[in-house]
Design brief:
This is High-affinity gluconate transporter. Keywords: Cell membrane, Membrane, Transmembrane, Transmembrane helix, Transport. It is found in: Cell membrane. This protein has two domains: 62 residues, no CATH class; 120 residues, no CATH class. It is globular and about 70 Å long. 76% of the residues lie in helices and 0% in strands. It is an all-alpha fold.
């Protein structure tokens, strides 16, 4: 236990990427856009650079400062990469598949389906977000796209925009499956089969999403 890094340095090493990116983001609103300091801060705060800096720091704090030699550090890093290599490939493949669907115009097609409808704006918002989520796999893309598509529907109705936003949020987590990186992370981290992941994680996200919709519809009756 004497060679184990102290708690403080361990936490600092783990959170260093977040700290660098956060500082760069905050300073970007304060510093002049054309200043040299701004360019340096933006460079250091870029996710790839922040991760690289954090890796170099970790080599020292978790390796060299503990008395490990370069070979031992290299072996530890190689073993770590082996454990996550397949997951990274799967996540990358899921992201590529999502981008194919986005570039193929799936979001526009789904928006056109609900362009002229008499359904409740809450239900429309949820359906659009849910369909985009299932089609594209990204909650962020589903939320942003759904918000832009239901703007005209909300502006012409008396429904509270807050409830529509909540409906979009509920729809954006519906039925997480193979085209989302999170699905594969759950599968790999817990050592589940595809069937088990569908029965547990996909079912869970579907129940949460539908429950959210029902709760929002219930609240809308009193607003």
């Amino acid at each position: 236990m004497k060679d184990t890094p102290k708690f403080g340095i361990s936490v600092l090493t783990a959170l260093l990427p977040v700290i660098l990116i956060s500082i760069a983001t905050i300073l970007s609103f304060v510093l002049p856009a054309k200043s040299v300091i701004y360019q340096i801060v933006t460079f250091i705060g870029a996710p790839d650079v922040a991760m690289l800096i954090s890796l170099i720091v970790a080599i020292f704090t978790m390796g060299i400062f503990r008395g490990l030699n370069i070979k031992e550090i290299g072996d530890a890093m190689s073993e770590s990469v082996k454990q996550i290599a397949m997951m990274l490939l799967i996540i990358g493949g899921g992201g590529a598949f999502k981008q194919v669907l986005v570039d193929g115009g799936v979001s526009k097609y789904i928006g056109d389906l609900f362009g002229q409808t008499n359904l409740s704006p809450i239900l429309v918002a949820w359906l659009i977000a849910a369909l985009l989520r299932v089609s594209l796999g990204s909650s962020t893309v589903a939320s942003i796209t759904a918000a832009s598509l239901v703007t005209s529907v909300v502006s012409n109705s008396s429904v509270s925009p807050v409830l529509v936003v909540l409906a979009i949020g509920a729809g954006s987590i519906f039925a997480d499956h193979v085209n989302d990186a999170g699905f594969w992370m759950i599968k790999e981290y817990f050592g589940l089969t595809l069937k088990e992941t569908f029965l547990s994680w996909t079912t869970l996200t579907s129940v949460i999403s539908v429950s959210g919709l029902l709760s929002i519809l219930l609240v809308s009756c009193f607003m």
